[in-house]
Amino acid sequence: LRTAAALIIGNEILSGKIADQNSVVLARALRSLGVTLVRAHVVADELSTIRDEVRALSERFDFLFTSGGVGPTHDDVTVDAVAAAFGVGVETSGIMEKLLREYYGDRVSDGHLRMARIPVGARLIQSHHIPWPTVVMHNVWVLPGVPQIFAMKMAVIKDELGADRPFVSMAVVTTMDEGELKPSIDAVVSAHPEVEVGSYPRFRDPEYKTKVTFDGLDPALVRDARDAFVRLVPPQAVVRLEDGVTQEPPK
Amino acid sequence: LRTAAALIIGNEILSGKIADQNSVVLARALRSLGVTLVRAHVVADELSTIRDEVRALSERFDFLFTSGGVGPTHDDVTVDAVAAAFGVGVETSGIMEKLLREYYGDRVSDGHLRMARIPVGARLIQSHHIPWPTVVMHNVWVLPGVPQIFAMKMAVIKDELGADRPFVSMAVVTTMDEGELKPSIDAVVSAHPEVEVGSYPRFRDPEYKTKVTFDGLDPALVRDARDAFVRLVPPQAVVRLEDGVTQEPPK
Predict the structure, then answer these.
(1) Of B2, B7, B12, B181, which to mutate for an interface test with A (greatest number of A Cβ within 10 Å)?
(2) Which residues in chain B are contacts of A74 at CB distance < 8 A?
(3) What is the mean pLDDT of chain A?
(4) Model-wide pTM > 0.95
(5) S-S: A120 plus which of A88, B80, B127, B133, CB 3.0-4.6 Å?
(6) Residues B12, B42: contact at Cβ < 8 Å?
């Protein structure tokens, strides 16, 4: 099983100016590749903090995806922090400088050209999905924080990591609460150790009280667990079954 | 300055089933109290992971707020993990058991009563804002993950922590990009070290290219920094000024 972590960088999230939109996008992309997102850490725009997190998370997981801190301003320190985490310097990428000069033309400033800086030894992934190259240092993907651009990078990740079997998710939506369902859930959890069972209560939802989810890499095993659960619940308490990899939109 | 961390617990977030909605709510509540949210970690429903994070984050920051994992089912292990972090056991709160029995009446199950479990030594905060008590173990607030209930707890936090001076946030919305603004931003950053300056680019927004923000505890210093920046930018590049603690809704 391949594992990953996310490092979301930005004072604007910790101060509540905006909500992080990138974690859930990354989580879904990785899920479709069969990669498990194990943690997501939101930290401030501080070089030493980012450096320490990059070092710890990149050692511990197969992939680390950073979001944010790659613009031209004083609070954009991710490239320097990633370089510091691996004990290397920072250099200007000729390819990226050329792209920046083409894009900005006569308006190009030293500020703009700062965006061509990469850790020494970083790999640039060129892709037909997005003109701007993607910077990868060892197993650390240095992604931009702007949500629209972050989302575009998912196609690059999919191409590069390749798909193992995607995770399959099924669910049973019921009118019973978690306390009532607990014995049935416990029975399925012990009989189906290879399936991850989750239960999600709703607060004052007129339609249902609990959604019980069944996740795993083997569709047959996931379905078996889901069906076993359905047999334990009174039929009138089942609102509907949900199949496949369908996921609710973020709210 | 008081500091805080958030520990968001839930496989459903890491698997992309839902987006975390609680961090931004907590961030804004703390901001209004003058408390700095320094990190937010999203982790899975695993006792040892949660225990280690609770220990590390509660030692390092003045407050830790956990979200999730407090229901009755097998994947609800936050209470046990918090107890383990402080090396204590778990006991049943008589007050909470009574509330559960009153609420569920004849339907009450062992599952429901699991929700009365608290770490030995935890404090229960009773509040007129919400009937269910809030569990606090040393400096760790054990909050529910259901967004509507999590949001209700903010009033309890505000009452209990009390407000220092709230952070003040002002902004300048401009049609210039970050690369062009960099010299002006750098000048303000060095001349106003007590004000936190941030810059947030927009991608293909017809209205503006960059929002530059000025945050701090002293409104006069924040305003000085903001005004100094405005004087450095061509007037026609300023779309508008934003004042006070107004914040954009999460998108």
Answers:
(1) B12
(2) 182, 185-186, 189, 197
(3) 93
(4) no
(5) A88
(6) no
**Cα B213 to Cα B199: distance, rounded to the nearest angstrom:** 6
Q: How far is B153 from chain A (nearest CA, A)?
A: 14
Phi, psi of A174 (to 5 degrees): -130, 160
The pLDDT tens digits for B168-197 are 999 999 999 999 999 999 999 999 999 999
For the residues B108-128, what does the mean pLDDT come to? 95
Q: What percent of chain B has pLDDT over 90?
A: 90
Distances (CA, A) of B249 to A13, A104, A192, B40, B246: 12, 32, 42, 19, 9
> Nearest by CB to A180, which of B38, B109, B183?
B109
Per residue in A102-130, pLDDT tens? 999 999 999 999 999 999 999 999 998 88
Alpha carbon dihedral A147, A151, A156, A160, in 10-degree steps, equals: 100
Angstrom distance (rounded) from CA B10 to CA B18: 10
Q: Is A200 on the interface with B (CB under 8 A)?
A: yes
Pairing verdict, β B168-174 and B238-242: antiparallel
Specify the 3-state DSSP secondary structure of A171: strand
Residues ≥6 apart with Cβ < 8 Å to A120: A83, A88, A89, A90, A91
- Our CA angle for B245, B246, B248, nearest 5°, is 135
Can you tell me the distance from the alpha carbon of A67 to that of A60, in angstroms, rounded to the nearest whole number? 18
Distance, CA of B203 to CA of B211 (rounded, Å): 12
| Region of B160 on the Ramachandran plot (φ > 0 left; ψ -120 to 50 alpha; else beta) | alpha
pLDDT at B247 over 60: no
Q: Report the 10 Å Cβ neighbour count for B142.
A: 24
The two three-digit tokens of residue B238, written as one number: 């300023």
Chain A interface, mutation test: which of B12, B14, B115, most A Cβ atoms within 10 Å?
B14
Cβ-defined contact of A23 to B19 (cutoff 8 Å) = yes
Query: Would you say residue A245 has pLDDT above 60?
Result: no
Each residue's pLDDT tens digit, A63-82:
999 999 999 999 999 999 99
Is residue A246 pLDDT above 70, yes or no? no
